[in-house]
């Protein structure tokens, strides 16, 4: 077993992976700190409406998941040598449409699931209509951001000659985290009049 | 109708995984609710929660993406073995995850200081994030590889699996171990 010294491993060398990733990880952490500060700041809203806290991880993670699925597919396209992005490429549009369809399904189910949990806990502080509005309005905004970022990040990392595997997914999911948290807390406060 | 086929195949393949991710997300949301109740003991801890979860996603998403591309390119095989590429990738992800726990603790503590908000001590932040970071990493490395390999052998495209698996396992175990870490640190310190 060889760790960190065998040149034939190329981009699979542990020391090289760590060296390449740590600076990016630190920069991304600083970006996501904004989501943390937003969460800390919304503590009173979350204490009042506990069901929102239950929705937070899915709200944030789903945007990242959808972006990650799309980025991974785009990355693989590039790896396989399909390096052109054409506006009239129907396969690309099918990818985008599938991501939106998946997102709408997930965010609708999230609202229903959260409402069911709140009802079971005997604490329906928000109506089903309010939860659906919060989930779908923030959801559509988050999916749109995730799609745009997936294309931009994959294309840019390819142009800059950086392996998209190490870069695209982290950038997309982290920036979506920040927007997701800000949008979700903002939409929830507006809908609930908090 | 290649485009329609592409749409249907992505939707069909990704939906079950996303719905599992949704169930996992709701569960970790319930744990987050419990963590919010504990914030009184460690003020400012919420600042670190999204960064901690995002970093798990970054490190293990990269590992998963690398394994996925490696499988597509035929560079690695879909099973646990003493393969140099596989071992290097795993070691790198563990080093990244654990060192980032210390960085996240310091950043969160510093951000709270700059904002002038009430904050737990730096030592408490580092202890909580290190405990949660090490435990989450161990579960994620094995869980991620297990699911990717099993999925790949059954004919699933690992590209569709990596993101959701990482976020689901990361959110559930990250949140649980974060809660566990706050309890242990409260007892220890």
TrEMBL record, chain A:
InterPro entries: SLC41_membr_dom (IPR006667), SLC41_membr_dom_sf (IPR036739), SLC41A1-3 (IPR045349)
Keyword Transmembrane in record: yes
GO terms for cellular component: membrane
Keyword Magnesium applies: yes
Membrane topology note: Multi-pass membrane protein
Main location (coarse class): membrane
Residue ranges constituting the SLC41A/MgtE integral membrane domain according to the UniProt record: 56-187
Transmembrane parts of this sequence: 21-39, 51-72, 92-119, 131-155, 167-192
Alphabetical UniProt keywords: Ion transport, Magnesium, Membrane, Transmembrane, Transmembrane helix, Transport
Cellular location(s): Membrane
Molecular function via GO: monoatomic cation transmembrane transporter activity
Family membership: Belongs to the SLC41A transporter family.
Protein name as it appears in the record: Magnesium transporter
Species the sequence originates in: Halapricum hydrolyticum
Automatic annotation (TrEMBL), chain B:
Domain SLC41A/MgtE integral membrane: 49-180
Membrane topology, from the record: Multi-pass membrane protein
Localization in the cell: Membrane
SUPFAM superfamilies for the chain: MgtE membrane domain-like
Keywords for this protein: Ion transport, Magnesium, Membrane, Transmembrane, Transmembrane helix, Transport
A Pfam family annotated for this UniProt entry: MgtE
InterPro entries for this protein: SLC41_membr_dom, SLC41_membr_dom_sf, SLC41A1-3
Gene Ontology MF term list: monoatomic cation transmembrane transporter activity
Gene3D superfamilies: SLC41 divalent cation transporters, integral membrane domain (1.10.357.20)
Gene Ontology cellular component terms for the protein in this record: membrane
Protein name (record): Magnesium transporter
Species: Halapricum hydrolyticum
